[in-house]
Specification:
Keywords: Magnesium, Metal-binding, Methyltransferase, RNA-binding, RNA-mediated gene silencing, S-adenosyl-L-methionine, Transferase. By secondary structure, this protein is α/β, with parallel strands linked by helices. Helix content is 32%, strand content 23%.
Length: 457
């Protein structure tokens, strides 16, 4: 992925002093995910351009636990600007981000003419403009078209920013807003990210009209972190009551509400031996282990990487033997029969079915409801009707979702599955409901009828 910074301030080659990178050399830096290079395609008295090129090594990328198996190799990370590029900015231009220059301190404090280009950036023209224009940039965001035989525009833009700003301010705008536009950080977002956001956003974020959207996306939709960040910004620019009610609230995060709803459903059916199907990195497994009612817990996933993450998260290697005997991790594909999953009190498919191609969904139904036949099955999935409440969201909530259903579509599917495989089913919402669109998540609780027997596909 590529980013260029150009100035026409004379002498323009002073850009090398501000970036602490000599224009006559190619500079390279090893990054956790590849190699970053800084070079100068033009360096004259009247115009100078510095280019930051990040060469991503797919083998060094960590596939997201909720992504498909080949996502480590099949993705847009090598070319679309993201948090990977922001991390490279932070390492390569550390002094410039701080506004420090040993050789040109007066120039570092001065607003100079700048032109910044990011040739491939995920985001709409409208959102890119909303984020950069309030900061003093003239924004040109040109949608990148698909190939002629496909037609139409992709979800990427070629971004050109022009303005007269301090270089440090320009770089900090990019450091924050590149991952905000990509909306998918490549690393775990911990509370120390709040400090990074406030430091990089000093002097501009508090007054930005989209500060709530920025905080939410920069902090990976972790509402508790975004709330804290916004509270710390209030000293400069109070958040209005109306704004604070939109994406950032003081309520429990939706993921936590969803987990609690699943635990309540398990308690409702009196389950003790539980399957977490599509367990990912183990968020629900951790909650199940803390509850003594669950005497046998199995986490199943097709991804060996996800199971490794779950094992680390649960600290299985350090777990006491009695506790360790309660849990087992198995690698399996949910669209195939696996006798190891037979006969449990309950199975949970929490935010799983929407990651399966619709033509393969009947295979999962046959495997879980027809062969494994747990006493109860709990399924959660997004309610697509609620998506209108997520500011800036276009399309589905996650790039790996194959579908998202309305409440009526989910209820129809649940009723058909229950009838086909000998279960009764009830559906309910999870999260704060809207009068028109319903709750953000929908849950189905299937309970096996006493007379039902194994149904083969």
């Amino acid at each position: 992925m590529l980013l260029t910074v150009t100035t026409t301030h004379r002498p323009a080659t002073d850009l090398g002093y501000l970036l602490v990178k000599h224009p006559d050399k190619v500079h390279s830096f090893e990054m956790p995910t590849g190699t970053a290079y800084v070079m100068y395609p033009e360096a004259a008295e009247d115009r100078c351009t510095a280019a930051l090129l990040l060469d991503v090594d797919p083998q060094k990328l960590r596939a997201r636990a909720d992504a498909f198996e080949l996502s480590q190799y099949v993705n847009d990370r090598p070319y679309a600007a993201s948090s990977l590029l922001a991390s490279a900015l932070s390492k390569v231009f550390r002094s410039a981000l701080r506004g420090a220059s040993k050789d040109r301190p007066e120039l570092a404090a001065e607003a100079i003419p700048l032109e910044i280009r990011v040739p491939v950036l995920r985001g709409s023209t409208e959102l890119v403009t909303r984020l950069f224009a309030p900061l003093g940039w003239a924004v040109t965001a040109t949608p990148l078209p698909f190939e002629p035989e496909i037609g139409g525009d992709s979800r990427y833009v070629d971004l050109l920013l022009t303005g007269t700003l301090r270089l440090a301010d320009a770089l900090n705008h990019l450091y924050v807003l590149l991952p905000v536009l990509d909306d998918g950080k490549h690393y775990w977002v911990a509370p120390d990210e709040i400090e990074k956001l406030l430091r990089a956003g000093s002097g501009w974020l508090a007054g930005h009209p989209e500060r709530i959207l920025i905080a939410r996306r920069y902090l990976a939709h972790r509402k508790s972190l975004a709330t804290t960040a916004l509270e710390l910004l209030e000293a400069d620019q109070p958040v209005t009551e109306e704004e604070s009610e939109l994406p950032v609230t003081r309520k429990a995060p939706l993921a936590e509400q969803r987990r609690d709803a699943v635990l309540a459903a398990l308690a409702e059916v009196g389950a003790a031996r539980v399957l977490d199907l599509g367990c990912g990195p183990g968020a629900l497994l951790s909650a199940l282990l803390k509850d003594a009612r669950f005497t046998e817990i199995v986490g199943a996933d097709v991804s060996s990487r996800a199971l490794e993450q779950a094992a680390r998260r649960l600290r299985l290697e350090r777990m006491a033997p009695r506790q360790r005997d309660r849990i087992k991790l198995v690698q399996t594909a949910l669209t195939y029969h696996d006798d190891r999953l037979n006969g449990y009190d309950a199975a949970v498919l929490m935010e799983v079915i929407e990651h399966i191609d619709l033509p393969r969904l009947p295979a999962l139904e046959a495997s879980v409801f027809g062969r494994a036949r747990p006493g109860a099955v709990i399924v959660t999935t997004p309610n697509v009707e609620y998506n209108v409440h997520y500011e800036g969201l276009t399309g589905m909530r996650h790039s790996d979702h194959r579908f998202e259903w309305t409440r009526a579509e989910f209820a129809t599917w649940a009723n058909e599955v229950a009838e086909r495989y000998g279960y009764t089913v009830t559906t309910r919402g999870v999260g704060d409901p809207d009068e028109t669109t319903g709750a953000p998540t929908q849950l189905a609780l299937f309970t096996k009828t006493e007379t039902s027997t194994e149904v083969t596909a």
